[in-house]
Amino acid sequence: xxxxxxxxxxxxxxxxxxxxxxxxxxxxxxxxxxxxxxxxxxxxxxxxxxxxxxxxxxxxxxxxxxxxxxxxxxxxxxxxxxxxxxxxxxxxxxxxxxxxxxxxxxxxxxxxxxxxxxxxxxxxxxxxxxxxxxxxxxxxxxxxxxxxxxxxxxxxxxxxxxxxxxxxxxxxxxxxxxxxxxxxxxxxxxxxxxxxxxxxxxxxxxxxxxxxxxxxxxxxxxxxxxxxxxxxxxxxxxxxxxxxxxxxxxxxxxxxxxxxxxxxxxxxxxxxxxxxxxxxxxxxxxxxxxxxxxxxxxxxxxxxxxxxxxxx
Length: 312
Fold this sequence. Notes:
The protein is mainly alpha-helical and 312 residues long. It has helices spanning 2-19, 37-48, 54-58, 70-84, 89-102, 109-114, 117-123, 130-147, 156-160, 167-177, 188-196, 207-217, 223-236, 249-252, 262-265, 282-287. Helices cover 51% and strands 0% of the residues.
């Protein structure tokens, strides 16, 4: 009876995997690189170096710092990503900490499986869709134990086969948990900002279309950093409503076709400036060599932004 049941479960898993459609990795015809994209990229990187956004202190990469076991570190990263959908970074960060506490001090697969569903739900009750995510976390832990030696999978397709995990989470999990650079994690910030910049012709309608466009022309060495860079930029500067165009170096350089200018830029309520009006931009200029990509190095300064993030 037990053997028959095991075979049935194995068969069901095999059928499920067979039906899963592989995640598309490239376009048949690459998207052309936007004009002056490298200059725009360097300006955004320069602004990000002068701000601390919520994602810098409460992003998925922070979930693993309290874990010592490598598998637990990777699982904590995945859990953080699964909780982050439709949830502010502050709420996700608090939920991860609460969940770690109710699981006995470590976010590991075994503890998640052994925990009562009500305990998990109580810990993550403030995140968006917490009931559904509670089920996803429990189901994912069992899958990881049974099929992946209690570890996070190392391919996009395997990650996307887990309940509640999509391409954005999968690419970010691979980058953060395994240091694998196989694609770009595109969320609402990356999708919104790159369209505002006019980097998609025609404008992309979905995050997946945005990802495939970007991957076709953006140098691969920049793939791991662009999500973190643009998420923070979107949380602080290029807001979904009332973007700070009047303080944006990209607008000042005439590189943003969507920038508000004149009276439209001043139409939002008065806000405390993010930084002094006079900015030294020589470092950005030095980065821009003909045909070269911006440097990957970033210098962080002690300037904390109080702007609340949007819901991802």
